[in-house]
Write a structure and sequence with these properties.
heterodimer; A: mainly alpha; 2 domains; two-stranded antiparallel sheet; B: alpha/beta; six-stranded mixed sheet; four-stranded antiparallel sheet
Chain lengths: ~325, ~290
């Protein structure tokens, strides 16, 4: 091969790189990638600088204070933090196991002709606007919850466990919000877990069947351990949705902004619901600044939980090997 | 007693579903470890196996050879009812294990699979520690005593020629081993609960030559104790390891797999009776 040909072939490759848009495409994707980072920082900056007045006034103690009186400028974030965390925790505790079971049914046990219609229905649940969930909660679920769940619990367990103590007359409360949130994030968790289970290779199932495992043992010791990292990730996505949910939570949680009650049946507030309900009426700059500070707190909660989730997924996926007792 | 009742019931059901001369055939068949009699297999409407009758002797290695699509894997997986998972799969005819009809009403697939273990084409250890990979089958089979389980795990890891390589990391994940080690782990897992028959579906096709050699050496040792049936694409492997060889071929018209010839491996490879067998083993096939 002559020198000239080598040069021309290098030139051709260079030409192909530039003409077919390798460079352009590279720059374009880099640009959009930077847009995302810029957005995060821009939002972070607005929330940080907007909350400056409130931060200066209340300091770090704002996080641990209760009270909410816009007229007297007496504000505390603790009820919102508590309501957000507890309602989301209830939601994930209920929806996590249930979502996994739904996914197991759909991918392992369900007859073939039912699988697609059912999956579609579950994904449809995720598409219902949250205000409709809220309305359903107010008109259908709360009346049932009051007489069917809260009353019996409060008159028995509630006698000695303050978590379930009465009164239950209000209906709206942290527990109801958690349950409504659970219903809302259930399709997310179920759909993701189903996708994860669907990619578990068949040879894992066969490996267990071949040593004489039952179908249940196959799922419990083979399919679920194999997909645990992905399932944890799905639950964390659900948790993220529950933390940020505004409308439905606002409609059923009861808007008790200034205090924390021991009972889960008592009204409370979440950070997102607090902002949505107060912002239209915030007339002075401190009130507004305080709401922005609440947004910063919510930002921080989601950030911390996401980092914890990442660590958990990482821990689980590289994790200590399982032991089983059959 | 129950065994006799089962045999009687199986022969009876065979009689009413097949021809009258079937009885003599079935009675003779019961002396073999495994005996397929006029076995058909379907995936939905597609017939994958047609009228397959094959005897498999105890404590020997039987190789199933044939080109892709001839139904040898289908037959292998039918022996421990691995097809049960597939709702469209259907079997007709009989496979007997010690005279008991594998597809008969008295056979529980879970108990069957404890007697008939399987090693797959791709190494598929559980997402568990090396120790638990082997111990799991024992626990499923009802072993309770931890000391006995630990002894048995060590014993079979020796048998699978893996002990020296893993003895210091028994609590590490089985997925961290190399492909060949994983496959030997799967063999150890399969033989741990002391099955009577081991099915091997191209156990070495994903492995390098040295790992293949180790697996074959393991098989030689296992032959003392187990009845082994191996599906292989490698003619050399079939010639090296097996005592008996069965050649299957897809019928060009019906596309169903059929048994062409079966017999001692020496005879199949040196003096095949059927022209098609000769063509295939000499590499003159299609």
């Amino acid at each position: 091969m002559s020198q000239k040909e080598e040069n021309s072939s290098f030139y051709e490759v260079w030409q192909r790189r530039t003409q077919h848009g390798d460079l352009l495409f590279g720059w374009l994707t880099l640009f959009f990638g930077l847009v995302v980072i810029t957005l995060v920082f821009a939002i972070g900056y607005v929330v940080w600088s907007g909350s400056a007045e409130a931060r200066d006034r209340f300091g770090f103690g704002f996080l641990f204070q209760t009270g909410w009186n816009p007229v007297k400028h007496n504000f505390g974030a603790m009820p919102a933090i508590y309501g957000t965390l507890v309602s989301s925790l209830i939601a994930v505790t209920l929806a996590g196991p249930l979502g996994i079971l739904i996914a197991v049914f759909l991918s392992e046990l369900c007859p073939l002709h039912l699988r697609n219609p059912l999956s579609f229905l579950i994904e449809l649940l995720a598409a219902i606007p949250s205000v409709i969930y809220g309305m359903w909660g107010v008109f259908v679920f709360i009346p049932f919850f009051k007489s069917g769940i809260a009353k019996p619990l409060a008159s028995t367990v509630g006698q000695w466990l303050p978590l379930f103590a009465g009164p239950v007359a209000a209906g709206r409360g942290v527990m109801v919000a958690g349950i409504i949130l659970a219903i809302m994030i259930l399709p997310t968790i179920a759909a993701i877990a189903r996708e994860i289970l669907a990619v578990v290779p068949n040879h894992q199932r066969e490996a267990l069947l071949a040593v004489g495992a039952t179908r249940w043992e196959m799922i419990w010791y083979g399919v679920l351990p194999y997909s645990r990292a992905g399932i944890v990730g799905g639950i964390m996505l659900g948790l993220g949705r529950a933390l940020g949910e505004t409308m439905a939570a606002l409609m059923v949680i009861g808007s008790a902004k200034s205090t924390i009650e021991n009972s889960l049946f008592a009204p409370g507030i979440t950070a997102a619901a607090l902002i949505a309900s107060e912002l239209p009426n915030a007339n002075d700059s401190l009130h507004e600044s305080t709401l922005i500070l609440i947004a910063l707190v919510l930002f921080g909660i989601t950030l911390i939980l996401n980092i914890l989730a990442r660590l958990l997924v990482w821990q689980v996926s590289r994790g200590p090997v399982g032991t089983i007792r059959a | 007693m129950t065994q006799e009742v089962q045999i009687q019931a199986n022969i009876f059901s065979s009689l009413i579903t097949r021809f009258s001369n079937y009885q003599n055939e079935a009675v003779g068949a019961l002396s073999n470890k495994i005996q397929a009699l006029h076995f058909d297999f379907y995936y939905g409407k597609f017939q994958a196996l047609n009228d397959l009758s094959l005897a498999i002797k105890e404590r020997s290695i039987t190789a199933l050879i044939g080109p892709s699509g001839c139904g040898k894997s289908t037959f292998l997986r039918a022996i421990n009812r691995m097809h049960d998972q597939n709702p469209t799969a259907r079997a007709a005819g009989r496979i007997f294990l010690d005279g008991q009809d594998i597809y008969g009403p008295f056979t529980d697939p879970l108990l069957l699979r404890r007697r008939v273990g399987m090693v797959f084409q791709r190494p598929n250890p559980f997402t568990l520690s090396i120790f638990d990979n082997v111990a799991y089958g024992l626990r499923v089979a009802g072993w309770k005593d931890k000391k006995r389980i630990a002894e048995r795990v060590e014993e079979v890891l020796h048998q699978a020629a893996l002990w020296n390589e893993v003895k210091d990391r028994l609590n590490h994940s089985g997925l961290g081993l190399s492909g060949g080690q994983q496959q030997r782990l799967c063999i150890a897992r399969t033989i741990a609960p002391k099955p009577e028959v081991i099915l091997m579906d191209e156990p070495a096709s994903a492995l390098d030559p040295i790992s293949t050699l180790k697996i074959e050496e393991t098989m030689f040792e296992l032959r003392q104790e187990f009845t082994i049936i191996i599906v292989t694409h490698s003619m050399q492997q079939a010639a090296r390891v097996s005592d008996e060889t069965a050649f299957l071929l897809m019928n060009a018209e019906t596309r169903a797999g059929e048994l062409i010839e079966a017999g001692p491996t020496d005879q199949i490879f040196t003096n095949p009776q059927d022209k098609r067998t000769e063509d295939y083993i000499s590499g003159r096939f299609g």
